[in-house]
Amino acid sequence: MLVQGYHFPFRASGHVVKTASGYDAVGKLTIRGVSRDVHVPFSFQPAGSLIGKTTIKRLDFGVGQGDWKATDQVGNDVSVSYALRLVPAAH
Question: d(Cα 68, Cα 29) in Å, to the nearest integer?
Fold first, then answer.
């Protein structure tokens, strides 16, 4: 995952289940050196892409220090949307 030049690794555990609206992958997301298990729901689109959206808790990853740790001004829930263009592997 990239956010304005920052890289937040997600490593799927290989556990993906079919859901009513698509799929759900489980894996570890690492932000600020903190790794947590997260669910990453996604669906495939006809144009060859994968899209999804999930919510994480910023304080679980140490995002928000000092005055920014309080949730009265900046909420703890962070919505994460993702879209990947899928291309065939080169042989």
Answer: 22
